[in-house]
Amino acid sequence: MVRSIVEGGLWKLVFPEGEWVLHAPGKPFAGTLRREKTYAADRGTVKETVTETDRTALTELTETEDGLVLSGGPHSLRIRICPLEGGLKLVFTGEEGRAYQFSLPAEAGRAVFGGGEQYRQVNLAGETVVNFVSEHIKASTILEKALLPRKLYKEKPHSQIGSYAPMPVFVTDERRMILFSTPADGIAELGTDAFRFTFDACPESLTVLTGESFRELNESLARIIPNRQYLPDWCREGMILGAQGGTEEVIRKAFGLLDAGARISAVWCQDWCGENRTVMGKQVWWNWEADSKLYPELKEGIVRLKERGVRFLAYINPYLVKDGRLYNECREKGYLILRQDGTVYHIKSTTFDAGMLDLTNPAVVRFIKEELIAKNMLSLGISGWMADFGEYLPVDCVLHDGDPAKLHNAWPVLWAKVNREALEEFGTGEEFFFSRAGYLGIQSYAPILWNGDQHTDFTHDYGMPCILPASFSLGFSGVSLVHADIGGFFSFGKLKRDAETLVRWMEMSAFSVLMRSHESIRPWANAQPYDPEVKFYTRALTRVHAALAPYLKSLTQEAARGIPAMRPDFWEAGSFAASRDPYAYFLGDDLYACPVMEKKARKRKVFLPEGEWIDFWSGEAVSAKSFEADAPLGRLPVYYRKGSAFEAVFRAAAEAARE
Questions:
Q1: DSSP secondary structure, 291-317, as one string
Q2: Fewest beta carbons less than 10 Å away: which of 32, 360, 533, 608?
Q3: Contacts of 33 by beta carbon, 8 Å cutoff, 6+ apart
């Protein structure tokens, strides 16, 4: 329970343990200002120039029947206070056309988590979090890695890394959750003396929740933003193999691994609609219909795959490559987003241009669902797809309906909503899709997210390690199911993965809710799961993942309650002070995994959480809490909780790797 109290010129929130003084003379809770902005966008990365004027602190406090009013000069903010289970909601009424800043108490040494998908670190205390959906990857970092000696590359800090899925949701070390309901661009300055949140428009509300554990907070959030994430049972029957090259080539790769004893649940073929060779490598031809030259008789090929228990997954995004057949059709129908001068607004991906489908136009939404998805994909027997992008909406475009500046952050959620509605209207219940970009509410539409485009290496800023802080942060923000491209995506020059990097990535993915590989943007230069020197490990690790299916299913069922499958090492302790390893994680309650993220390492320092633990591979009890564990290639250190209801599953999974 959280109580709001006004006395002696102070406004405070009283929690079961402690209180927050929100407003006091000289320390106002809110202020208002004008923020003039210019945006410069390049391939989804946006630079903002901000000019702030007319800043007014709302220092005067007046109580009302259902809340209070804060005012200063000619400006005011009305606040209606609404009690909630586990917290309260402050509903705001502000002025149109003005920005607002809010200040909440902070305490030096206290950690803060969430903010949507944040890649560099899970504790964001002292950092600024940008609330603007954008491209995560920058071309400059790829070029640095391609051109500089490895020792000269400097890993980028949090402040230089964007997010596909930021969210104004934060959880403090005191187990309090802060949720601003707003689609507006903004920033969160998470200082040691105060948390300051600035948004370009007045938020609809601020919800403050409290709980005895992080789990309880996530459950409370799921009552506010419903979590409808899921995975079909067949996803857990093995790895989803990223494969390209045409119908026969994909079948050859999949059947080759099956014949070697690997467990393959599906093939994911992003080039089903054609390939687009660019200076970066092999990209997708953004024209959402089967490419008859590369994938002849695709429907029959899908039947052949399914006869051996392998599904077929595809790829789609809300853009159309310029001068492609569907682009020309949609341009003629007026389905594409326009510039102010009435011409088609093109975005650039690496070196090619594309038009954007206008998701505010009901006719476009019908076209996507009925033609692009139902007719062009589902009718072929396609069982799912990557629903890519959604973060590139320009704030200066012209839409069929609505203000693009106000819709920019919500755009990836609209994109996921269209995909989810298509499945519910035309699917069989056995299909799913996975999304990259997101914002508040993405968990109500996207069955699962993936962490976007990592570099094919072990760097902490853009490589394999960044998956864990990103997944933890999404978990604190209410997104329960997340996975990653095995092996990463971006490769250029000497930035490429070898067999060791790929296997280490597969090890971690085997202990996740969804195991899916990616051939990368340059398949010919990067190690693949079907390569002769990798196939042994692919066989063992996919068999482990498939054997874990009963346990993994229980984690997906928990998603409806908002509980993340992947959790940081301090999750159960309830305090960041208990963290010993930022790159170890709980998978559910009963598995604890310690991925190896260092080249040539064959040992790994392990710090076990409280409780009694069993070595997953040997089945022997582990008495020490801190030790050097053996980590031969193909076996990350991983442990299960003694007395777990899934002990037999874990023993069978370890045995499956040896069969």
A1: -TTTSTTHHHHHHHHHHTT-EEEEEE-
A2: 533
A3: 52, 53, 54, 55, 56, 98, 99, 100, 101
CATH number, residue 605: 2.60.40.1180
Residue type at 350? T
Condensed to tens digits (0 to 9), the pLDDT of residues 464-490 reads: 999 999 999 999 999 999 999 999 999
Residue 43: the pLDDT is 62
Question: How many structural domains is the chain composed of?
Answer: 2
Q: Which two tokens stand for residue 492?
A: 């250029």
Per residue in 533-583, pLDDT (tens digit) is 999 999 999 999 999 999 999 999 999 999 999 999 999 999 999 999 999
Active site residue 237: no
Rounded to whole angstroms, the Cα distance separating 347 from 138 reads 16
Task: Name the percent of the chain in helix, strand, coil, to the closest 5.
Answer: 25, 30, 40
pTM surpassing 0.70?
yes
Q: Are 130 and 121 in contact (CB under 8 A)?
A: no
Query: Among 127, 185, 388, 558, which one carries the catalytic annotation?
Result: 388
The residue type at 220:
S
What does the pLDDT look like over 291-341, one tens digit per residue? Answer: 999 999 999 999 999 999 999 999 999 999 999 999 999 999 999 999 999
Task: Give dist(CA 85, CA 369) in Å, integer.
Answer: 38
Does the annotation count 391 as an active-site position? yes
Between CA 582 and CA 567 the distance in angstroms is 11
Can you spell out the DSSP letters for 156-206? PPGGG---SSEEEEEEETTSEEEEEE----EEEEE-SSEEEEEESS--SEE
Mean pLDDT value of segment 176-180: 97
- Provide the domain limits for residue 188: 3-224
**406 inside domain:** no
Average pLDDT, the chain: 96
54 belongs to a structural domain: yes
Query: Considering 127, 391, 558, 581, which one is annotated as catalytic?
Result: 391
Domain containing 220 — which CATH number? 2.60.40.1760
Asked if 30 and 103 touch (Cβ cutoff 8 Å), the reply is: yes
Please report which confidence band the pLDDT of residue 35 belongs to, taking 50, 70 and 90 as the band edges: confident
**Choice among 117, 275, 453, 581 that is catalytic:** 453
Q: How confident is the model at residue 659 (pLDDT cuts 50, 70, 90)?
A: confident
Q: Which amino acid is at 438?
A: G
Task: Evaluate whether residue 368 is within a structural domain.
Answer: no
Helix residue ranges per DSSP H, 320-466: 325-333, 362-367, 404-407, 411-426
Residue 329 lies in a domain: no
106-149: pLDDT as tens digits: 988 899 999 999 999 999 999 999 999 999 999 899 999 988 98
Residue ending a domain, among 224, 250, 277, is: 224
Q: To the nearest 10°, report the CA torsion of 576, 580, 582, 583.
A: -140
**Residues in a beta bridge with 386:** 315, 434
Rounded CA separation 225/438 (Å):
14
